[in-house]
Amino acid sequence: MAVSIDTVYQRVQALVNKEQRGYVTPTEFNLFANKAQMDIFEQYFYDLHQFKRRPGSRKKYNDPIEIIQTKLNPFKKDTGVLTNGDSLTNITDMYMLSDVFLSFSSGEEFRAVTKIDMCDLAIIRNTPLTRPTQNRPIYYIDENTINFLPETITGGEYNGYYIKTPVAVQWNGYNIGGAFAYNATNSTDFELHESEQTNLVNNILKLVGISLKDPSLYQAGQIEETKDINQEKQ
Question: What is the DSSP string of 193-223?
Fold first, then answer.
């Protein structure tokens, strides 16, 4: 389930208005909300890299890698068929390419296609142990175009998965006598997992604290965020 934009909006406004600290306009809130969403989303990939360097929990529900993958699953989409020289910019909502595989109409088992850095291409192609073959295909990305090796593969089809960018969130309301009433029809919820609701509030609070030059708001968001991160990483 996604996170309600209105729930986060109301919680942020309640915390900001406490002790008459100020008011966040819908326009300001939307800017902060989108930055907070992307900050949390991009942190997933950094955390995955860190967690993969250490053993996970034996129980899936305690495994941080499994937890992050669960949060990312709704963002995973099929690329469709990929061919040499395809521009990845044609997939307009792509954040990053995730997995690529090669399948054959003959029913052969599909093969994972390994991504390499373009700077390593010459060495890989000229080293017998790493040279790409039909059983060990590779790909590299050059100026947003995807290139597969070896070129001699026939009867195969490349497909893949990518992680899409979260849609921009939007809180919209009716202005009634200077006050705003929530308009669900023209609003867009967060796409992040429902468990991220508190993190979103904390991150937005930090941004509001900077905007209002209120250190206490920033610190409140920072303290709660640090507490949540420590709990998740235990």
Answer: -GGGHHHHHHHHHHHHHHHTT-HHHHHHHHH
